């Protein structure tokens, strides 16, 4: 299917989408606006991909992010897959290339999306037809309700003040039996991780750190028992079993 047609099928009716450069589409009215990660894209990729950074600062490992994303991809054979805040596909590009799922990966930062495109081109020589790169805003989700069978939101929630709004917005996009896979940094009495979370909050990178209890409560309020919660160091991994009827 034509990329624009496919994207229109998952967008809400009043939204328009256009190709803004090779293999990158946008629903944002002004693509010249700079976003927070545009200036940080190269640094993010260089630092966050390393085992050392993740182990020392957060007590976790990139391997866990890849495993979690793999679980999300393998949770269904078909149905659209949404990567919300996909960044540069740092942990997911290889999985996506090898997957049969149809994937919409969106982020507001063009610099991150360009890096995602480069990563896919390096792996495959092109952006494959089953992966659509889209510029869109998590605070103003442009998608049609119930369009996605699986949603992955990796390492984003700790940057969002209104976590309830984001989780309920993503939930709205899930099909009846759809699953949300989400990770978030939390404070949990790991001295270095808790200290660094607070430092990143002070510099404006993150919102005030949430505790394990706060994050669990957020999901229990929305999904009740229909969720799994796991933790590795300062990183929480949440999987919802079905869409919540909020
Ligand atoms: C910490 S990075 C995570 C990227 C990727 N998911 C990963 O795990 O490598 C956070 C990403 O969220 C994106 N982001 C932050 N606020 C956003 C918003 N309002 N709309 C869309 N993307 C946003 C940033 O541009 C950035 O790429």
Helix content: 25-40%
Sheet having the most strands: 9 strands, mixed
Order of helices and strands: HEEHHHEHEHEEHEHHEE
CATH evolutionary superfamily: Vaccinia Virus protein VP39
Count up the helices.
Answer: 9
Query: What is bound: which ligands?
Result: S-adenosylmethionine
Q: Could you name the CATH topology?
A: Rossmann fold
Instruction: Trace the largest sheet across and list its strands.
Output: 1-2-5-4-3-6-7-9-8
Shape: globular
Layout of helices and strands:
Layout: H1 3-10, E1 18-21, E2 24-26, H2 41-48, H3 51-58, H4 62-74, E3 81-84, H5 93-98, E4 103-107, H6 110-124, E5 131-135, E6 148-153, H7 163-173, E7 174-185, H8 191-202, H9 212-223, E8 227-232, E9 235-240
Parallel strand pairs: 2-5, 3-4, 3-6, 4-5, 6-7
Antiparallel strand pairs: 1-2, 7-9, 8-9
Bound molecules: S-adenosylmethionine.
S-adenosylmethionine binds next to loops.
Defining key terms:
246 residues, alpha/beta, Rossmann fold, 21% strand, binds S-adenosylmethionine
Give a short synopsis of this structure.
This protein has 246 residues and is an alpha/beta fold. It contains nine helices and nine strands. It has one domain (3-240): Rossmann fold, CATH 3.40.50.
Structure commentary:
With 246 residues, the chain is an alpha/beta fold. Helix 6 (110-124) links the parallel strand 4 and strand 5 (131-135). It contains nine helices and nine strands. The chain has helices at residues 3-10, 41-48, 51-58, 62-74, 93-98, 110-124, 163-173, 191-202, 212-223; strands spanning 18-21, 24-26, 81-84, 103-107, 131-135, 148-153, 174-185, 227-232, 235-240. The protein has one domain (3-240): Vaccinia Virus protein VP39 (Rossmann fold). It is 38% helix and 21% strand. Strands 1-2-5-4-3-6-7-9-8 form a nine-stranded mixed β-sheet, sandwiched between helices. It binds S-adenosylmethionine. The site of S-adenosylmethionine (SAM) has 18 residues, from loops.
